[in-house]
Amino acid sequence: MADRDLIVRIAFGSMAAQTLRAAISLRVVELIGDGRRTAADVAADARAEPQSMTRLLRALAGLGLVREHAPGTFSVTGAGTLLDPGRADSLTSFVRMFTDPALTRAWEHLDGSVRTGKTAFDGVFGTDFFGHLARHPELSAEFNAAMSQAAGEAAAALPRAYDFGRFTAVADVGGGDGTLLAGVLAAYPALRGVLYDTEEGLAQAPQTLGRHGLTGRCSVIAGDFFRSVPKGVDAYLVKSILHDWTDDQAVTILGHCREALPPGGRVLILEPVLPEVVDPGPEPGLTEAALTHLSDLNMLVNVGGRERTRHDFEDVCARAGLRVTSVAPLREAAPFSVIETEAA
């Protein structure tokens, strides 16, 4: 029975994800607020049908995101509060992006990607993923917000886990809106920053840097990391970038960092590091190990990249003229690790 239950739970996973999407669209968490409210009242404010709202709220209760105290009366749980877009630690954009057809439709062709090794997204949408974002500014803004929300834990954990005090300036390559770099600069007041990404990727950067009071200490430079990276810094951050690309493309990105790296400089890669053999943990299901390998499949079907083992990282770094000096799990922002590299 346990084996059957495992398969059923996994099969219902996409339904659970779309339940989160509906809850965000209907502003359920915001409408319930900090107290208790009836489903009828929430439905009235959401302009929804009362019985259907009750069914949605009970599904959310089953998922642990709200609690039903009496028939038809609900409050929001701690996890549920993360679906409130007004919170600093909200995951609403992350959920919307990862349940959007732009990310889910290619998954319908996972079997084809496994057979061929080719990205399914391009065939479904007629262009590559980042080209699609460039054509749809609203979706690009949602993606940027999702990446910002995903970077929140790392932005808090990285400055405590790694000593940036030895550097004078750090560049975040592909740094998006600057959430990660802002976390580092806030913790190291003497450090200067350079935020580097495409025009689309940097669209929300001025607001993020302004909110943290870093506009005068951080330069924002638009460019293409397949062509070059900014010089004049002694540390490069590369977070959640390499897994978007093939090994050859990852070597190109790292090679540009190596070319610009001064003596004593470092390139810091922040990505999950796959084990050589999968350890599913004590309980099967959607564990941290499973999520990392699902991310690997997401790279396959949507962008053409991959998650990597330590050996894989050492290989692409060596090809780029870099040597891995340490790999340290970022425990407060699992499953990320800090991969420190220097000139080989």
From TrEMBL:
It holds the Pfam family Methyltransf_2. Keywords: Methyltransferase, S-adenosyl-L-methionine, Transferase. GO terms for biological process: methylation. Residues 9-82 form the O-methyltransferase dimerisation domain. GO terms for molecular function: methyltransferase activity. It comes from the Bacteria. Residues 107-322 form the O-methyltransferase C-terminal domain. This is Methyltransferase. The lineage of its organism: Bacteria, Bacillati, Actinomycetota, Actinomycetes, Kitasatosporales.
